[in-house]
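Dear support,

I submitted the protein below through the web form. The confirmation email said the job was done, but the results page showed an empty box. After a refresh the structure appeared. I'm attaching both so you can tell me whether what I see now is the final result or a partial one.
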Amino acid sequence: MYTLKGAEFTPQHFGWAVEEGVATITLNRPERKNPLTFESYAELRDTFHNLRFVDDVKTVVFTGEGGNFCSGGDVHEIIGPLTKMTMPELMQFTRMTGSLVSEMRNCPQPIITAQEGICAGAGAIISMASDLRYAGASSKTAFLFTKVGLAGCDMGACTILPRIIGQGRASELLYLGRAMKADEGLAWGYFNDVVEDGKALAKAQEIATRLTKDAPTFAHSMTKKCLHQEWNVSIDQALEIEAEAQAICMQTKDFTRAFDAFVAKQTPVFEGN
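What the results page shows now:
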């Protein structure tokens, strides 16, 4: 069988290390709280796709550098350009971001998020799409799409988040865009555990080692496959629905208003169009 070696992989837009079967992905733009770009979205998507064919990675830990996990899509490198795109271009983007979630859910390795500090927008989606989540006590998670004039349905949030924390709680977070505190997330079942600030990565790596060393990793992959497939509505169907909805929202004036207000360091005033 032809296989790839994760240890030989060198990404361009995030950190990557493999040790004893555990791969660690590190978002590494700490000066901006580790935002995503078009390029990092695509490279992450392709990485999780290729993990299907890697034989030396049994578990994946996802973390961020500098005390924060991820601030979401880069305002200037993603949101600004989106306000000028055509509908076909927007659909290409929203389907690409949805594909990242699809690849995360379809790769056989369990994915563990180690979350510190800010975890917002697409960063919250990455956390949500992981199999297990561990957070520092001060970490805050915000699905803040409505804050920029977009729908709360982004990258599968309306299908995955309610299954984790319940419909009512998910609805509140997605409508209001408010931050979920770590202790709330633990009480609601979003986090598997909350630890002292600065200890989330160590906790995630401890669990990853347990899932990898002397463990039935093939059985783990089958467990993940069934957890993913045994839903009444597939994530892929939900991702397409939400990709269309989000691309439509990206053509509204409110989305442009939010970007213009951000650049001007003002609070956006939404008008519902």
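Response: this is the final, complete result; the empty box was a page-load delay. The first helix runs from residue 38 to 50.
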